[in-house]
Specification:
Layout lengths: L12 E4 L5 H10 L4 E6 L12 E6 L7 H15 L3 E3 L4 H7 L1 H5 L9 H8 L1 H11 L6 E6 H4 L7 E5 L8 E4 L2 H13 L4 E9 L5 E10 L2 E13 L5 E7 L2 H14 L3 E10 L4 E8 L6 H5 L4 H9 L15 E3 L1 H10 L4 H13 L8 E2 L11 H13 L3 H13 L3 H9 L2 H13 L1
Parallel strand pairs: 1-2, 1-4, 2-3, 14-15
Antiparallel strand pairs: 5-8, 6-7, 6-8, 9-10, 9-12, 10-11, 11-14, 12-13
Helix pairs in contact: 2-17, 3-5, 5-6, 12-13, 12-14, 12-15
């Protein structure tokens, strides 16, 4: 799909492999109106279904619970629709990275080789990679058994499962009693038999931040950073301010080059403004939530789909810092999740409507009626559920995370899948 330098890039026909996550919803704003976009997801009421940017929605098998069925379904979709690009925006990247060459015979897809994917998906391996490159991270120890955890730790600290999604495998340990209770739960879940690696990590110093980047075979072609202004469920950023930390950009360039990364990644870190020192805590090998970048003038999803289509993609200049954004209904959900009353939720809704406090001079990342009038449906759907019963937040979060989570058992099942049968399936999709 090559074109001359003077031509306008043509629209692409894109299949997004899920529509539940915030990453998927935010990618729609960056891509919608310029491309033809279809979405598949196991949830018939996923939030991306409610968008004027989505041409067609189809219910799919669950990629983690039935990876083989998911791949067959994906091949059928590509065969029937002849997509230019398959765009995984969440944990489907793990499965599709293993099958990237197979899928790539039928449609464009930008993902790293599977060894690199595994090393970044696994928190322990990510930390070891940082160490090998001399990049900073908080003081960290590793454990696999109860005996490993029987240590005179410095409290508080974070205990992290090497594989988890949405912060649900990250536990704040305040003291010895807290650790004892967590050990009991880990034992009950079978996580202390020596086969599950965990990290014991001291709190990082500074302000929580995130860097997002897109790479073309190890060359960084776009990046964006933001500071967290407010955290949501699982420790994710629910309100952000665009940032510029040059040392972080240098570090991420080095990491991507070392891995010969192809596609997107984002890394959470803490940044100490006094010492200008970052400490990296986790890598997510996917595009992430990109509206703050998009509003700042850095369209990472557009770069990613053009790269996926095999086009030559120019390097984007860093954006100026300062763009303020928030995800209002995620803030509301987080408040309810943490025990807020109806009165407190109503007060927050008033603050949002009047654009006061956190919402002053700030744009919403998810509910953007001027761009997509249908984006009001998920917001008010969640808000009304929470006002009726704030405790519904637990069910909403659990259902959402279940749709895209990647437990350790799923990664093991994916690693055992034989590539060859699917080579024939996707070759058939390419030949159609």
């Amino acid at each position: 799909m090559a074109q001359s330098d003077n031509s306008t890039p043509p629209p692409l026909k894109i299949l997004m492999t899920e529509g539940t996550s915030l990453s998927a919803r935010q990618s729609l704003y960056a891509l919608g109106g310029r491309h033809v976009i279809d979405v598949i997801d196991p949830d018939r009421l996923c939030q991306c279904k409610f968008s004027r940017f989505v041409r067609r929605f189809r219910i799919s098998p669950h990629y983690a619970k039935n990876p083989g069925e998911f791949l067959h379904f994906l091949a059928d979709m590509v065969r029937n629709e002849q997509y230019d690009v398959v765009l995984p925006t969440h944990e489907q990247v793990y499965l599709l990275s293993k099958f990237r060459d197979v899928v790539g015979e039928a449609a464009g897809i930008a993902l790293p080789h599977f060894d690199a994917m595994r090393s970044m998906q696994d928190k322990a391996e990510f930390t070891r990679t940082l160490e090998s490159l001399g990049l900073p991270y908080p003081q960290t120890s590793f454990a696999t058994t109860e005996a490993d955890l029987a240590h005179n730790w410095s409290y508080p600290f974070y205990l992290k499962l090497a594989h988890s999604t949405a912060g649900l495998g990250v536990f704040h340990i305040a003291d010895e009693d807290d650790l004892a209770k967590r050990i009991e739960l880990l034992r009950a879940d079978g996580n202390l038999d020596g086969s599950v690696e965990m990290l014991v990590q001291q709190p990082a110093k500074g302000n929580q931040a995130t860097v997002q980047a897109v790479f073309d075979h190890g060359r960084m072609i776009g990046s964006h950073m933001f500071d967290a202004r407010r955290l949501g469920v699982g420790g994710m950023s629910a309100a952000r301010t665009g940032a510029d930390h040059p040392v972080v950009r240098e570090h991420v360039e080095r990491l991507g080059s070392h891995l010969q990364w192809h596609g997107a990644m984002f890394i959470d870190y803490f940044y100490d403004y006094e010492t200008e020192r970052p400490e990296y805590i986790e890598c997510n090998p996917r595009v992430g939530e990109t509206v703050n970048a998009w509003l700042s003038g850095v369209n990472l999803p557009e770069q990613l789909v053009r790269l996926s289509a095999g086009e030559s993609v120019e390097v984007l200049a860093p954006a100026p810092a300062g763009q303020r954004t928030q995800s209002f209904f995620m803030i509301l959900l987080s408040m309810a999740y943490n025990g807020a009353t109806r009165r407190e939720l109503l007060k927050e809704i008033v603050q949002f409507r009047l654009r006061r406090g956190l919402y002053e001079d700030s744009q919403d990342e998810l509910t953007r009626p001027r761009d997509d009038y249908m984006s009001m449906i998920p917001m008010w759907g969640v808000a009304l559920q929470l006002l009726f019963s704030p405790r519904q937040s637990k069910k909403i979060v659990a259902k959402t995370v279940d749709n895209y989570s990647l437990p350790r058992t799923a990664t093991q099942a994916m690693e055992q899948l034989d590539i060859e049968p699917f080579r024939k399936v996707f070759a058939g999709a390419s030949a159609t």
